[in-house]
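Subject: Interface between my chains keeps coming out wrong

I've been trying for a while to get a sensible model of this assembly. When I model each chain on its own everything looks fine, but I need the whole thing in one frame so I can look at the contacts. Pasting all components below, labels as-is. Any help appreciated, I'm running out of ideas.
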Amino acid sequence: MAIVKTERHEDMPPPVSQTGVIGWLRENLFSSPLNGLLTLISIYVAWVALSGIINYAFIHANFAGETRADCTDSGACWVFIKARFGQIMYGFYPPEERWRVDVGYVLGAIGLFAILSDVVKNKKWPAVYMFGVYPVICFFLFSGGYFGLPTVETSEWGGLFLTLVLASVSIFVALPLGIVLALGRRSDMPIVRMLCVGFIELIRGVPLITVLFMASVMLPLFLPEGVNFDKLLRALVGMSLFSAAYMAEVVRGGLQAIPKGQLEAAKTLGLGYWQAMALIILPQALKISIPSIVNTFIGLFKDTTLVLIIGLLDLLSIVKAGTTDKEWVGMATEGYVFVAAVFWVFCFSMSRYSIWLEHKLHTGHKR
Amino acid sequence: MSEAAAANQQSDVAIQLIGMHKWYGEFHVLKDINLTVERGEKIVVCGPSGSGKSTMIRCINRLEEHQQGQIIVDGIELTNDVKKIDEIRREVGMVFQHFNLFPHLTVLENCTLAPIWVRKTPKAEAEADAMKYLERVKIPEQALKYPGQLSGGQQQRVAIARSLCMNPRIMLFDEPTSALDPEMISEVLDTMISLAEEGMTMICVTHEMGFAKTVADRVMFMDAGEIIEQAPPEEFFENPQSERTKLFLSQILHNA
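Reply #2:
Try treating it as a single job with all components included. I did that and got this:
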């Protein structure tokens, strides 16, 4: 006997136990007696840990005062950070010139906002500004010597300022250079491919510390007498090339994930190699590599602390130097906690931005 | 356009393959292929998988390189000259089995990309053109969606529209319906039939024998890298000459 259904079943809302706050709680936290118990234990552990941190960092912390003697309560002595704040932020940059760094920050923040946010739709001018104009402005602004600005030697740069200079220059150089290296590694031209593979494998095969060490100690030995690069410049070149090699491999991973048909379709439509790469392949490849690219950026940002070994005073090393001051003996914990917090804020922001970007670029496609 | 191409525009030959051979490493994929396609002619190529059908049509727009013999498209001979390759690719449209739409661009952007960047058409004009072709394949309302939001049949029709936006004189179809659900095959075939009726020169690799009977001027059977038999559809289906063709036809028509 044939079964024929003549009426359509109406759509019904899901059962109440699956939706709303109660449904969520039951589903996720108290789905069984054991899970309920684990939830309660977890809440207790989190409370114990958090209350300790809050007590140390805020409730019993010392904020007021000028010297070590003002730290009377049992918690952190933030007076140390306060007293050395200028140095932690700017290093030995002369206090009366520090406004130049601040102007640089503001100009950079405007450019970054234009390029990264949704507000400005046409990215052409922000890109020209960020990649072409801004670096030049910063160069003259920070090192001076022109337009009546007194010269500030790079040896006086330090603190968070130096960390940001190292990180942003490396990031800005590494991404484009990494893309070029990745394309070169997949090129049909044997010489180009060999050069790219050689460069990537050589750089990836050695630790960053040795690259920095070579750039700062060995390079001058090979240069003719009297020729001398700035130490910061050498560190920047070393870090940029190092991260470009890593970036190249990340981008190559993305390129490999794009089906061959995409390039074939682009060719069939008459697009040339560079057009196909710029319009079809790279937008897709970079999009799927966003998590790995940001991962590399975050790693790079934290690796800037390694310039310590060639005597540059970045955020970490300047705080470390501060803790050896006999006026402030025993302030290492406060110093490192503060540095960790600053690094965390920057790295976490990058991470959140990448998640937002991934979400925005998602076009709901499968191929 | 080169002089040779201009001179050839009046001639009736659209594509000519002369003694063409191709190898993948040691493997001889295409053996002595000779084929002349006249302007406006529709050719259906069939044959078992691995017989070299796709490879042959992919040689025509240089997605694959041939090693021996000549390929002349629209009066231009395919060599390593990149300019000539680009010139040919602009005249030859291609539709793939897996659509190969650009997933990061909307349907409209998929269609206007090549006109804007290759032909330097102003954006507004390219968009108006694209809408015209999207209407022709009956999906203008999907123009602002992304390919991933469309069904397979719709995606393939977008792919056809995208090719048409470059005003090709020749269209190559590489198993355009093989990746589609059965209920979507006919919408793509209908589009192809209407294109054929307008006089487009077409080479289709397909197993849709109904399509072959309706539109083909010639049906070609390939096996093991060789063209075994070619004939007008009535003759090909009613009275195949070679044993291999008979066997192949009995296998695919048995299920139809």
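Reply #3:
Confirming on my end. Residues 111 and 162 of chain B are 4 Å apart (CA to CA).
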